[in-house]
Design goal:
The complex is a heterodimer of chains A (114) and B (113). With 114 residues, chain A is an all-beta fold. Chain A has no helices and 11 strands. Chain B starts with a strand and ends with a strand. Chain B is globular, with a radius of gyration of 13 Å. Classes of the chains: A mainly beta (114), B mainly beta (113).
């Protein structure tokens, strides 16, 4: 069965430091991969997605993620954390076909320290 | 206006009461979803609908029911609320295909006392 694993339920970085949020998936078919962000008291919004084009995907707010098929990973990075990046981040996977739903990771809470 | 609107945003209700959470979307998508979010458990799918005549149970549908009144409207009901249904509830909509983005409402924070 397909699944998504986010390593680390809580990540803390200093302002200006590299952000790395890890996501691994299990799948027997080519996946579509997504990162969503949830700011406090808000719904989820799309950060970026991989849909079989370029393996390095750039998203909003300076985030990017690289699809590595050999490692079944889609880790999210940002070179320099900002206080406004503090939020919950969710990785999700889906597959081709009209009946495919998103499969969600459990989320990673990112704290940014001054 | 928001793409996906949920009402109410916050609700406190008593055990045993019936409550309805409403969702409407302006994206023109056929697919709509109800999720529940609990700390440490991520998002869990309650029900989903791929069109007005199609309703499907998700992974945690017990104790919940839904109604798809129109393409744009999808409501979630708790027939007899219980305390462990206290959670943050999200409605979402998406287009067809696995590569399309899901658009979420702001959420409804439900407390059952």
């Amino acid at each position: 069965a397909q699944s998504v694993t986010q390593l680390g339920s809580h990540v803390s970085v200093s302002e200006g430091a590299l952000v790395l949020l890890r996501c691994n998936y299990s799948s027997s078919v080519p996946p579509y991969l997504f990162w969503y962000v949830q700011y406090p008291n808000q719904g989820l919004q799309l950060l970026l997605k991989y849909t079989s084009a370029a393996t390095l995907v750039k998203g909003i707010n300076g985030f990017e993620a690289e699809f590595k098929k050999s490692e079944t990973s889609f880790h999210l990075t940002k070179p320099s954390a900002h206080m406004s990046d503090a939020a919950e981040y969710f990785c999700a996977v889906s597959y081709a076909g009209n009946n495919r739903k998103l499969i969600w990771g459990l989320g990673t809470s990112l704290a940014v320290n001054p | 206006d928001a793409d996906v609107t949920q009402t109410p945003r916050n609700r406190i209700t008593k055990t045993g009461k019936r409550i309805m959470l409403e969702c409407s979307q302006t994206k023109g998508h056929d697919r709509m979803y109800w999720y529940r979010q609990d700390p440490g458990l991520g998002l869990r799918l309650i029900y989903y609908s791929f069109d007005v005549k199609d309703i499907n149970k998700g992974e945690i549908s017990d104790g919940y029911s839904v109604s798809r009144q129109a393409q744009a409207k999808f409501s979630l009901s708790l027939e007899s609320a219980i305390p462990n249904q206290t959670a943050l509830y999200f409605c979402a909509t998406s287009g067809e295909g696995g590569n399309t983005e899901a658009f979420f409402g702001q959420g409804t924070r439900l407390t059952v006392v």
